[in-house]
Model the fold of this input.
Amino acid sequence: MRITALAGGVGGARFLRGLRTHLDATPDLADSELTIIGNTGDDISLFGLRVCPDLDTLLYTLGGGIHEGQGWGRADESHRVQGELAAYGATPQWFALGDLDIGTHIARSQWLAQGLSLSEATTRLAQRWGLPDQRVTVLPMSDSPVETHVVVEDADGQRAVHFQEWWVRMQASLPAQRFVAVGMDRATAAPGVLDAIRHADVVLLPPSNPVVSIGIILGVPGVRDALRGTAAPVVGVSPIIGGMPVRGHADACLAAIGVECTAGAVAGLYEDFLDGWLVSQEDAASVRLPRAQVRGRPLLMTDRAAAAQIAGAALDLALETKRG
Ligand code: FO1
Done:
């Protein structure tokens, strides 16, 4: 079976690791191919290096190198290089770059400088993490740079800051007036992205941030049309449980676009292509969608087994849902 997913950072990666576990444990699904379209709007250039947080979180989580507690960065990390940078007064110092993680950024940056595309560089990085052996392919949403910037306003007036500065340094403390995907006007879908949606047997939307992760991928030309046109059932998993985001600042992101922080409101962002929506039990009664079938179950990915069960439930819902 060909499964395609659109994913952002931590929640998406944990869900997809659970999906791979579920597929491998299900005899007639074990040889399924999983293609993940990763958000690159979080990407940032620092110290001459190109950092791709969501792609790296996918590679590390699926490849076994992730810092489990953080959900980003490497396990068993050290920060000697960062200490040296700080000693030199090199900025910024609010974005933690571990020594092992810097290895990824140097390799990627070197390949990009040699003329490889982001897709080609990502393929090389994925090989090291054994993803081809897991029948997993990670595609950047686009090979051209797209960066999410956040318009904020304070005493100094309105200004745009890089998403990472808003997310990490400011901890989303200043309300986002709006998000701007810088470069999206010149972006095209990376090779294989649109076909992965069109020719999938199932398309899944993990519980990633609907605004700055899934929402950015949906902004890539052709992606939304491909989701509307694919014969594959499209099933999403709510990132909101009982009005609260499971992780991160999804509530602040939804507020910025004037969408209420509920499972039903998030589904509304996908309603032109959504066939199924997996929500938590407490939300199941209150979520009514015009077309998509709603199903309730526990949604907290408390551990890897829970993630596998949730991913299995999303896949089951897709397999029971034929495109209307
Ligand atoms: N998140 C933080 O909260 N603080 C950090 O210092 C930080 C550094 C960092 C370095 C590399 C990387 O791949 C991710 C990093 N993240 C950090 C997480 C990152 O901001 C988010 O994971 C995504 O951009 C949002 O999903």
User: Anything to note?
Assistant: The domain at 2-144+186-319 is CATH 3.40.50.10680 (Rossmann fold). Residues 8-10, 42, 51, 53-54, 56-57, 72-73, 95-97, 101, 164, 167-168 surround FO1 (CB under 6 Å). The chain is about 35% helix and 20% strand.
